[in-house]
Design brief:
It is a single chain. This protein has 174 residues and is mainly α. It has four helices and no strands. The radius of gyration is 45 Å and the shape is rod-shaped. Its main location: mitochondrion. Keywords: Electron transport, Membrane, Mitochondrion, Mitochondrion inner membrane, Respiratory chain, Transmembrane, Transmembrane helix, Transport.
Length: 174
């Protein structure tokens, strides 16, 4: 049996390419247009973020500057309600009643007023020392001075240096 061989002179050329015109733009142009659209989007995104941050900053500063006004309005409303309650209580009960019907439990501002009346050399200092003694529970020279009713600051008993003043004469914190 003879072997199957190509014809002499070879086979005819096979047309594997379609000879039709190209449609549209070259791919590089599509990439360029897409890059331009994406760049435009990123540009607006960054500017939008900056504007959002600026609006947030403006809102925060507006809040900071309006807070005292709003707090004052709230305080006025609370005071109005408090005095209206006192007036209503006085109208219903015929007199103003104390919370515990005694002078043992008094409000903070009454302590300040009493300390100012009882002390000629500065009631708030005496009041601060009293509060320090009550809250800290320290029973040193400060509490002894407060219990004795003395409100001088600087030297303790018998001319010794106070705990609030160090050896160089500089005032520290209590």
């Amino acid at each position: 049996m003879p072997q199957d061989l190509p014809p002499t002179g070879g086979y005819d050329a096979v047309q594997y390419r379609r000879n039709i015109p190209t449609r549209g733009l070259r791919p590089i142009w599509y990439m360029a247009i897409m890059g331009g659209v994406v760049g435009y989007g990123w540009y607006h995104l960054f500017h939008g973020q900056r504007e959002k941050i600026e609006y947030a900053r403006e809102k925060a500063w507006a809040r900071i500057h309006l807070t005292p006004l709003l707090q004052a309005e709230e305080d006025r409303d609370q005071a109005r309600r408090y005095y209206a309650d006192l007036a209503r209580e006085k109208q219903l009960l015929g007199s103003e009643t104390r919370a515990y019907n005694s002078d043992r439990y008094v409000l903070l501002f009454e302590w300040i007023l009493k300390s100012r009346e009882s002390s000629s050399a500065g009631g708030p200092i005496w009041f601060m020392l009293l509060m320090f003694d009550a809250l800290a529970g320290l029973y040193g020279r400060h509490s002894r001075r407060v219990r004795d009713g003395r409100n001088d600051v600087g030297l303790g008993e018998e001319g010794e240096q106070d705990a609030g003043v160090d050896s160089k004469g500089e005032r520290g914190t209590y």
